[in-house]
## 1
Amino acid sequence: MANLKGGTFEKQLKDAFHRLEAFGNSRHGSSDHLTHSDGLASKREMYLNDYKHFLEQNGIREKMNQSMTNENISTFLNQRLEGLKHSTQENYVRGFSSLVQGLQEVNISVSVERSVFDEKVEHIKTLAEPDTRTGLAISNLSQKVEQLYEKRFETGVLSEVMKDLGIRISESYELVRNIDNYYNPSTGTIENLVGKGNHIYNEKSISSELVEKIRACDVLPSQNTLRNDLKEVGINNPHMIKYTFAKSEFEKKINEEGVEYNQALREVSEELNHSRESMSLFYLGRVWLTLDMCNNSNFSK
């Protein structure tokens, strides 16, 4: 089995792409996993670029194919799928699995086991869309964060950061690891934190107590360990914390601050690091707004 050619990820990506090319070759009677169409080529280019960015962000210097271990692929998928619809998650995992199979068929050495993808698909299926009356928001999130502190201090800190700031799991790791790069002590805010799509979050207030907890962190758990800790207290998907943040912020703006409905949607979208107010509707559509809230006169558009 061979390695991808090239001394940079860009060159290795191109080598992988070209090795998989089979345009014009009939698939009749064949079950190969090569690239036979422009549509599939476009998707695989996306997969390879996504994985390249993951390696760069995590300081992994091995050849792209050598880095495709069970642990790395599992962590990559967890990060990349965060926030996507379940159907999109499943399609992405199956597509990436097919890419890996194709590389193996053209004699590229890849050690990740098929079971990593199969188990991920099964996990996604267990997270079927909830009843909207139950939703994805967590009613007792503060209590669960306290339970996480009792289990593992660093897990408690990471979960509290996600709860208070409404940021993703990968962004929480970045903030906790490099708090001095983002914390402005004169204003008590987090600044210039980069989110999904390289969009920079608006300034976010953070308590001095939480900053001290962040500074007290020692060795952070792996993301897989963190996810397992969350599951043990009933948080099956870390993105449930962000849904809870969106619901809480929206309720506060409507019920406490008297913000007009559409303006509240815009402001919550900005806090979630999205440019469109429709993203607030996406998040809020996955939590249950009680009858009392819906009857509130402030909810009229």
Note: The first helix runs from residue 9 to 20.
## 2
Amino acid sequence: MPRACAFDVNETLLDLSALDPRFERVFGDSSVRREWFPQMLQNAFVATITGVYSDFGTLGGAALGMVSERRGVDLSDEDRQHILSGMRELPPHPEVEEGLRRLEDAGFRLAALTNSTQQVAEAQLEYSGLAGYFEQTLSADTVQRLKPAPEPYHMAAESLGVDVNGVRLIAAHAWDVAGALRAGCAAAFVARPGMVFDPLVEPPDVMGSDLLKVADGIIEAEAR
């Protein structure tokens, strides 16, 4: 039986560059988005490592405040909401739907596993038109620990009714793949532009430049 596939959502399935016009409007520079999201991840990792939980939306707002202070921009509540609300209105990367369809047609169970809250994740997948591909939408908020801590991956396995090694995590983030592998899952890395794999982590058995290549790699790997 093939493993259940659990997909990271932000950047793996959904295109964060859709936020660029919002950052352009507020900061006068769309590239600030590429400063903000890594800052949010850094805040998330610090919170997780030190055992102080904040949900992903709260972390995103804090990171936005840090970036605006660094840039010397006076961020109004309206500006903040304008940017953060865009997280619910992200389009999928162009090849994502076909990649999901190939895996579904090959008999794989598909779930989403995200650091976003349940409410945001469900809104994202509905807006993007991808919700129908997933039998479950799973949020790390449920266990009050964010990926790459082991608890979200174990929660996904339990929710799907399989052993942790019966789950394959698919992500465009090396840190997420590392977390999944070290929690006992299989994994696949989507090497989107600018995404490179951590040389200190044993690579997964499937890697590809987009979700179509990764889907084909998963199908081939699970058939062995």
Note: Residues 16-88 form a domain with the DNA polymerase; domain 1 fold (CATH 1.10.150.240).
